[in-house]
Amino acid sequence: MISVLIPTYNYDVSKLIATIHSQLIKSAITFEILVFEDGSTHKTNSSKNLSNTSIIINNNNIGRVKARQELAARAKYDWLLFLDADIMPKTKQFISNYISAITLDHDAIFGGFTYYDSKPKPSYRLRWKYGKTKEQVLASLRNQSPYKVIISANFLIKKKVFSTINYKIQHNKSYGFDNYFGALLQNNNVNIVHIDNEAYHLGIEKSEVYLKKKEQAALTLLHFYKTKGITTHSNDLLNLFSKLNRYKLTWFLSFIYKTFKSTMQKNLLNHSPSITILQLYRISYMCHAYKNNIRS
Asked: What CA dihedral angle connects 59, 60, 66 and 68, to 10 degrees?
């Protein structure tokens, strides 16, 4: 029995709901679909003709973390399938693949992300290239370090486990919580597995917007670093920052950021961004924010 939970903000999820609903019907499993309209001004078109499907209207935007908590609290069933609004299952076996995986002895199952091969417009290349390089990873590789590539846009989890983990996240409306969520899973020894059951990521932001989000994600990591909200983790960026801080080298990376900020941004916002430069930008910005006490 599965509760499919989809938080959305100004994104029409009608096609996603119809696709998931069709697969659930064919699977003959007991299910419900709950959509949480989180303060949206543009609502999902319709789901009135779909069985076991409800749209919850929330007038004020509370953010994805709290929206997921609300959905989990309303869910009837023991397994929660969380899907972001801007995804689409890669195959017609998306639901059946998850159902088959439930027979495994795991608390959470991550399906993964994928991207279309065709390049988007130049102003959207950074998000697409980062996704293709860092997020589109085979399950065999993800399982080698299971808490490292945590993409919560497409995953199945036991309700009792999610309720325990997600309610520890209080810093709600920032960006970059997949890193923290992965650390919480690891800290609580949650038994997870990755499978090749990808969803296409459709909502690719413009490069300027995505670069700002990467800055925000760095600030989110810093917040948890300073407050010791993350102890055990598998995050490469935080591991590198911790090492630089231990050897008192954050000043040097902060200098790199101040000196080469414009040059790095010029590359990242052009038609052929370098992911290596993006990684340098992220760590140098993180060090700069740490040295200058910049907060999210």
From this structure: 30
Residues facing residue 221 across a β-bridge: none
Q: How far is residue 137's CA from residue 149's CA, in Å, rounded to a whole number?
A: 8
Asked, for residue 127, whether it belongs to a domain, the answer is no
Contact 111, 150 (CB under 8 A): no
Within this chain, do residues 214 and 174 fall inside the same structural domain, yes or no?
A: no
Are β-strands 192-194 and 108-110 bridged in parallel, bridged antiparallel, or unpaired?
Answer: parallel
Q: What is the 3-state secondary structure (H, E, C) of 226-260?
A: HCCCCCCCCCHHHHHHHHHHHCCCHHHHHHHHHHH
Query: Which residue in 192, 193, 166 sits closest to 181, CA to CA?
Result: 166
CATH of the domain at 99: 3.90.550.10
- 161 found inside a domain: yes
Provide the strand spans (E) within the chain. Answer: 2-8, 31-38, 53-58, 79-83, 87-89, 108-110, 113-114, 154-158, 192-194, 199-201
Residues 55 and 182 in one domain: yes
Return averaged pLDDT per consecutive 10 residues of the chain, 296 residues in all: 95 94 97 93 69 91 89 97 97 97 91 97 98 97 95 96 84 72 91 97 96 94 84 88 96 98 98 98 97 87
- Nearest CA among 248, 250, 273 for reference residue 263: 273
Residue 139 lies in a domain: no
d(CA 8, CA 86) in angstroms, rounded, equals: 8
Q: How many CB atoms lie within 10 A of CB 255?
A: 14
Same domain, 197 and 287: no
Residue 146: how many CB atoms within 10 A of its CB?
21
Domain interval for residue 41: 2-112+149-203
